[in-house]
Amino acid sequence: TILVLDFGSQYSHLLTRRLREFNIYAEMLPCTQKISELNWKPKGVILSGSPYSVYAPDAPHVDKDVFKLGVPVLGICYGMQELAWINGTEVSRGDKREYGPATLNVVDKESPLFKDVDHSKVWMSHGDKLYGLPEGFKVIATSENSPYCGIANEEKQIYGIQFHPEVTHSEKGKLLLRNFAVDICKATQNWSMKNFIDTEINRIRTLVGPDAEVIGAVSGGVDSTVAAKLMTEAIGDRFHAILVDNGVLRKDEAKNVKETLTKGLGINLTVVDASDEFLDKLKGVTDPEKKRKIIGNTFIHVFERVAAQIKPKNTDKEIEFLLQGTLYPDVIESISFKGPSQTIKTHHNVGGLLDNMKLKLIEPLRELFKDEVRELGEILGISHELVWRHPFPGPGIAIRVLGEVTREQVAIARAADHIYIEEIRKAGLYNKIAQAFACLLPVKSVGVMGDQRTYEQVIALRAIETSDFMTADWFCFEPAFLKKVSSRIVNEVDGVARVTYDITSKPPATVEWE
Ligand code: XMP
């Protein structure tokens, strides 16, 4: 195991991710971790980047016992500046920030860290720089703007690099991390998704104990289904999944999820039809943010009510844990430093539940990225179709019916969406598109059908390509495909007289219309 000490860089989790890509397990802990309190010995330590400056009064610093472990250490960006700074070398603001690509020039051709990475493009992102070398160190690489691009104390096996090998913009960064972990630290390459499952199941069993019970919401999406399946493998029926039908789910969704989760995956699931309650509360509301709030709050309300009815079998005990399928990208603020101690905050998909219910949180997918969760899902026997489903927003069709959300409007949007997705699947395009859906616009437009004047609403279709949903481009369908979908929707969905295709990228638009 490699220990990654996190100083709060936005890239820190990519380090553990890259190491997993060549089967090395890395554990990430806050940079303030006391080494004497670790009950295992790492094969090597990586100090991450950070938004801080090492010389700032509130900057986080590493426990110096790291260097007494006698294992190799690699400092990345801030991590390197920290190595230098604690060894008495001046670090301060450079004349200009260095941000973007640079070419690596390896000076020490024998350095095991840079094996096969010379002359590659590396990604820089720093404002501070070293003004000298700490004692015992030498320069092993430079770049045009960084005379101290790579430094090493070979005797002690301490390395520092100014660039970020963990981002994909660093062409051979992955190889460099492999050189460090495998060749220098001699870490064992035995991590696999199968091992992860075993380890995680054991961890869950230990945490939950022999008789406590766990509750969790499922949505029919990949994250909550994978988390629920993992929990079921670990503790069986002591895990209670709840699906709340909020009245703004996709066509036949509650029925299909029930079928897949209970029959297909053996998950102990309760489905609650709360659609009237949700739609009642949404009456007259047109503001998108209000819709989101109402749906979020009503969800908490319903979930708590149902949870209170699910009593652990044969006991008067309460449910103790709440499962959440939070992934790494959902963890918006991983670590924040407040004075000497750090607090870890996580973003809750089901925000508010914990405060009210006094439940302890379990997040088995917290370290993983989406593609890893998909791989995990496939190994757990979840169908390919579910594992590769497009994302669906928590507020559901309520934010795809612009204007007031009524049962009738939801039914129109739902029917159009169903036809659209069906055609996308038939055309073999589903997996080429990151997300597709239909929106119902609250405007009427004139048409003519069978010699009759019509005056009905408009459906807008959206399909996007993206890797991270932060930026997105619209998908280029063949005209014949759009023709077919348009004609089916107008012919088959009552209340729609016109179909348009959304050709706006994100930014400036967002993926959803609301
Ligand atoms: P936007 O519209 O922000 O969407 O560009 C980016 C991605 O996030 C999804 N999305 C949501 N998911 N609750 C969710 O669980 C929400 O309130 C929400 N709003 C947007 C959206 O579907 C897209 O995948």
Automatic annotation (TrEMBL):
Any Pfam family hit: NAD_synthase
GO cellular component, one term: cytosol
EC code(s) of this entry: 6.3.5.2
Binding site for ATP: 219-225
Organism domain of life: Eukaryota
Oligomeric and partner information: Homodimer.
PANTHER family: GMP SYNTHASE [GLUTAMINE-HYDROLYZING], GMP SYNTHASE-RELATED
Descriptive protein name: GMP synthase [glutamine-hydrolyzing]
Lineage: Eukaryota, Fungi, Dikarya, Ascomycota, Saccharomycotina
